[in-house]
Amino acid sequence: MIRYEVGTEDLLHSRFAISPAFELDSLLRRLDRGGRLPVASAARLRPAFESLRRHTELDAVLALQAGWIGADFVAPPPAGLAQTWEDDLATIRATPPAQARAEIVTCLAARPTADPRVLALLDAPDAVSRLADALDHAWRALMAPDWLQLRALCERDVVHRAGVLGRAGWAAAIADLHTSVRWHDDGIEVSGMGSDQKVIPLAGSGLLLVPSAFNWPNAATYTSGEWPKTLIYPARGIAVLWESPAPPEPDALADLIGRSRARILLALESPAGTTHLARSLGMATGAVGDHLAVMRRAGLVDRARDGRVVLYARTAIGEALAASALTV
Asked: Strand 208-212 vs strand 230-234: parallel, antiparallel, or unpaired?
């Protein structure tokens, strides 16, 4: 078990972030080891992954994934919620050669390889640049097509957690992060991380909380290395991508209020902003805003401000309509 010791300063300095590079790293691990994939994209991801292995130098990246050990420089810690893949890629390319060399040696010791092409690349003076190129190819082929929707789910999770935090405090915000995570005696405990208890004082630096799509259904921690003290957990609503195909089309509800408005109403299982809804549904932000305005006038949704974000939620009438559509 991991236990993060939390003080007053840690509560002030804890923060949320989104990590495109971590998501790509997690997806590559699943593809390399035959792990489970989101139902809706599995048919596309595996052939694309095999093509990348044949036509790029991706195998050298995979060689740096040894169990739960990995090279920090290929998945740098995120700075905040606005992190983009371009930010991560720039950080990867700027890795000092000495740091990259040390991490490569550690990873190869944990997971030796005899592939001469991989060993030659990892020993080359331009190893960092070539690994970055391979990661960029992987991002564009595997992650980019779904990233707006995945990012929207992570952003909605953060909005939800921030709302709970503001209303009820840290204990409540931590309570439903994951079944293995709990707030106990002024600390955050994460079970399933080994038989012995490892106590990690946050020492005033706070905890980095990162919602994830591809680490589902697990929680993960960073307690050493380049990352700050970090807890990674499955974003709310992400299980739908893993456990079933796309939700059924709301035909009866669509006949009543229109297909786009029906999709928006059903997507409001938890409060969300216009931008988040647009990204998750693949719709234009302006169109979502127009539909929400009509639905608000009709009494199906209401809105409230949460900090800088205006959140929309279903009213009692909206809840009844959504429930009836899902039971048809």
From this structure: parallel
* pTM, to two decimals: 0.77
| Per-residue pLDDT tens digits for 108-130 | 999 899 999 999 999 999 999 99
- Residues counted in the chain: 328
Element housing 201 (H / E): strand 198-201
Helix segments in 111-214, DSSP class H:
116-122, 127-138, 144-168, 170-175
d(Cα 212, Cα 232) in Å, to the nearest integer?
7
Pick the CATH number of 247-327 from 3.10.580.10, 3.30.230.20, 1.10.760.10, 1.10.10.10: 1.10.10.10
Contacting residues for 276 by C-beta, under 8 A, at least 6 apart: 152, 155, 156, 159
Measured CA distances, 179 to 3, 36, 175, 191, 217 (Å): 15, 20, 8, 9, 10
Q: Where are the domains of the chain?
A: 2-234, 247-327
302 vs 1: CA distance, rounded Å: 42
- Between CA 223 and CA 235 the distance in angstroms is 21
Quote the Cα angle for 42-29-60, to 5°. 115
CA 94 from centroid of its chain's CA atoms: 24
pLDDT single digits (tens) 203-231? 999 999 999 999 888 899 988 877 899 99
Regions of the chain short of the pLDDT cut 70:
193-195, 243-250, 306-308, 326-328
